[in-house]
Specification:
Elements: H1 13-27, H2 37-54, H3 58-67, H4 83-97, H5 105-115, H6 126-137, H7 141-154, H8 180-184, H9 189-192, H10 196-219
Helix pairs in contact: 1-3, 2-3, 2-6, 3-5, 3-6, 4-5, 5-6, 6-10, 7-10
Length: about 220
Amino acid sequence: MGTMNQPHPEFDEKKWFHLFKNKARVLYPNSDPAHDFLHIQRVVNTAKNLCDSEKGRWQVVMPAAFFHDYINVPKHDPRRSYASALSAEATIEYLKSVNYPEEYFDEIRHAIEAHSYSANIKPTTLEAQIVQDADRLDSLGAIGIARCFATSTLMSRPFYAEEDPWAEQRNLDDKSFGIDHFYIKLFKLVDLMNTQTAKKEAEHRVTFIKEYLAQIKREI
């Protein structure tokens, strides 16, 4: 006699959210302000808004957003492009340990692996697109400016080039100068957004950065 299919238990969003938040609070150190717990909070909040707007599955997006930087490899480390894969595996091991529904594991893994700019992996699901967009939005706007200069400090690079701040007579070099990073990478993120909701917000945030840079130009 065959066994009847058991109904899928209801997903307890609040339970998992508080568990993941408490885990993230101890997982991400304050030593890197660009990738600390506050960064995670912002990405999770943005991802939730995108999830609601774009009709994504929060069961996949929530853990991926919380743990996309589980293993943080410094920007200048040669292993940087592997960070998202390492984070994905560490996340799955953690989710197994807390008995998170396994049916979401493959999509969570993909969302974490694909979020990284340096990994260059195309997000093939809506949920992976949402996580990637949420993380990239945190590189733009007022917070994006703060994160850029926080990273500049960690890398011991000056905010701008003394002789030619705006690269009028030299090649852009964001390994040496903070402001160059806006032109080499951050302004390009608008066109790389996957969802329309994120693209609209990215355009708004880039406009703010350009106004900020115009003010710097007046000051120096």
